[in-house]
Every structure is written in C-alpha cells, then in structure tokens.
Specification:
Strand content: 5-15%
Radius of gyration: 24 Å
Structural class: alpha/beta
Helix content: 40-55%
Shape: globular
Largest sheet: 5 strands, parallel
C-alpha cells in the first residue's frame, strides 16, 4: 500500500524532502566535473540526495552513465577490483559480446579476463586468472575514464561504504592509485568520469579524507544539512490528512527533536503511529509508537553497550552529562577514567565503534539519536 512515510528506500521527486539545496550543490559539482565525498551517519539521506541530483540532471538534459557498488562485503584487493571493474563495464555495455570486447581491449596484459563459462554460471563479467598486481590495479582504476572517453558520455561512479577500503589490506595503495587517476582526469581536456565516495561510518571516512588527507584538493566534501523542523512537520501533517487523520503540530515538535530531524527514523516512527490510529492522533499514540520503535532497535542497542568496556561506558556517561574537559583530574576521578592517557584511548575506541563523533571544537555527540535516547533513559536511567 502506498504511504507518504517512506523509510525503506531512497526517495526522489515529490517524495524528496527538505534537501533541495544539497541536491543542487551536488548537481553543480558533478556538472563542473568535481569528485565528491559524502559521509554522514547511517540512514541520513545520502542516497536520496545523490539520486535526486542525478534525477535533476537528467531533466536538464545532462544524463549521466551511472554505476554504483557497495564495499560493505569487500575484504580483499581482488574483490574490490573485480567489483569496481564489473560496475564500470555494466555502466557502459549491455551484452556479453560488448563485455568481452571491453575487457579484451582495455584490460589487455592484465590478469583480468572475460570468461564466458564464469559469466554463464555466475554472471561474472570479470574473472581473475592470477592474483592482481600493481599494474592490474592501475589498469582497472583507469577503466571508467577510458570508457567515458570512448562512449563520449559523462560517467558517475558511486562507491558506497567507501570506508571499507581499509578492510582490503591495500587501502593506502588503492587510494594512492586513485589519486593518480584523478590527476590524469584533471590534466585531460575532457575528464568524463566523476567519483562519489559515500560512507556511513563518519569517523572512518574522516580518517581517510581528513586525517590521512587522501584525495587532498581532489575531492569536495558535501556535508548534508539538517532538514528544517517546519518542513518535516508539514510533511507529517499532510501525510496524515491523506488518510483522513489529524495530529496537532505541537506534538510533532518533540518528535523532530527526539530524532534530531532524522527523516528515516521519523518516517518509520510516524508510520507506526499511522498504523495505531484511526482518526485523531493523541500523545498516547505517539508514546505507544515510541515503545514499538525502541523494541525494534533495542537488541542492537544492547549489543552495542555489551561491546563496551567499563571504562568506555564511563566515558559515554561523561559525554551524555555534557562533559567537555575529559582530561581534568576532577572528571577523571568522578567518572573513573583512570588517567588522561586513558581518556585519549577511550575517545579513539568510541570513535572507532562509530558511537561518538567530535566536531572542530572537540565537542562530542552520539551519532544515533534513538540510541542516545535509549541509553539515557533505559541504560543510565537519567532523567
């Protein structure tokens, strides 16, 4: 059944909400042949912004050849290169004959082949007949640029969950080779391919792009803005009216603030409210829905807390209490943090677990708004 409260897939067009400016900026960057990095916590609208920007571009007549793949389950250099190449080839070609032609011409002299039996058995466009070496990596990473130039069409390659490049064991080598490819694109009179590096592990992406300074001056970060409360509230009110239901706008203000304007959580939460009501939606309905959404996510939250050491739990409590000067002797004693050296280790541990992130002023915040609510209310039993 159609619903205005969509949370199970990315949205575009009339369902795209509140980030028109972000989509416009991304479209302009792609139009200027810029490579882009987008890293935000999970389920914060990254894919919707990307797809809306590409949708807007197609309306303007600037349609791109678009390929996308996820590094979520990639754990080796070979896996990455095969997935990278397969995505590029599928973006530019559609038949087995075209696949074979591209591999034979553009990957000649490498250990990559088009094996018709592997294609028939496993739908594998690219197979490997030996462990890939540095030359293989260089050839594969240049493939999108070659295909774009050959087709005369602009190509956008989206690398989702890019932080997992570090899981291949060759992350630095891959990034260095990609930097060389980008330099070649910049030197070209018509760089026909752009990369979008997308990631949901904010601290891991910061490590790549801000700490190690990979792709320095080669990639522009697009930081998504929070969707305004009034836009979200209007969206919910109108959605309920379509089903003949009414809710007071004042009730929705607390919903926006609880979920920090995260549309994925809000649409999920409101869809539960919708299923629990028949007409006028009151505060008790919202509380019942809150209990339901917490019950869905609570096992994940419990697993997260069980993965923390006692010191890490104490550090998390200090963060929730609004502490900023973690290394002061008073704070170390009050929260049982052991020492200032241990405080640094605790900060790093919570960041690596993607529980906490720090801004430019070194102020901490929890990445997941519902987890923050749960850990305050149910774990630490704070008022």
């Amino acid at each position: 059944m159609s619903t205005p409260f969509i949370y199970d897939k990315y949205v575009t067009g009339k369902d795209f909400l509140g980030r028109t400016e972000d989509a416009k900026i991304l479209g302009n960057l792609l139009g200027q042949r810029e490579h882009v990095a987008i890293y935000e916590p999970p389920k914060t609208g990254k894919k919707s912004v990307i797809q809306q920007a590409l949708f807007d571009a197609s309306i303007r007549g600037s349609k791109y050849l678009t390929g996308q793949f996820s590094l979520m389950n990639i754990r080796s250099l070979q896996d990455f290169l095969v997935r990278f190449g397969t995505t590029a080839v599928r973006t530019a070609a559609t038949t087995p004959g075209e696949y074979a032609d591209i591999v034979s011409r553009h990957l000649a002299g490498t250990h990559f082949v088009f094996d018709r039996k592997e294609y028939a058995d496993r739908d594998a466009l690219i197979s490997v007949n030996w462990e890939p070496d540095t030359a293989d990596m260089a050839a594969m990473l240049r493939l999108p640029m070659k295909l774009a130039k050959e087709s005369g069409k602009r190509m956008v390659l989206i690398l989702d969950e890019f932080q997992n490049i570090e899981q291949t064991g060759e992350g630095d080598s891959i990034c260095k080779e990609l930097e060389k490819v980008m330099d070649e694109m910049s030197a070209s009179q018509d760089p026909g391919c752009c990369f979008i590096f997308c990631g949901s592990m904010v601290n891991a992406m910061k490590e790549i792009f801000e700490v190690k300074c990979r792709f320095y001056h080669k990639v522009t970060r697009l930081q998504l803005r929070a969707v305004e409360e009034k836009i979200i509230i209007e969206h919910i009110v109108k959605g309920f009216l379509l089903g003949g239901k009414i809710i007071e706008r004042e009730l929705l203000l607390g919903t926006c603030r609880l979920f920090r304007n995260n549309l994925w959580y809000i649409n999920h939460f409101i869809s539960i409210c919708d299923s629990l009501s028949k007409g006028y939606i009151v505060e008790s309905t919202l509380m019942e829905a809150l209990g339901a959404i917490i019950s869905i996510h609570e096992p994940r939250f419990i697993a997260t807390m069980n993965s923390l050491t006692t010191f890490q739990v104490n550090m998390l409590k200090a963060i929730l209490d609004g502490v900023n000067r973690f290394s002061s002797s008073e704070v170390i004693q009050k929260y049982g943090l052991s020492s200032s050296a241990n405080v640094r280790r605790l900060k790093d541990a919570l960041m690596k677990k993607e529980i906490v992130t720090f801004n430019e002023k070194d102020e901490a915040s929890l990445e997941d708004p519902l987890f923050e609510y749960w850990v305050r209310k149910y774990y630490f039993e704070m008022n």
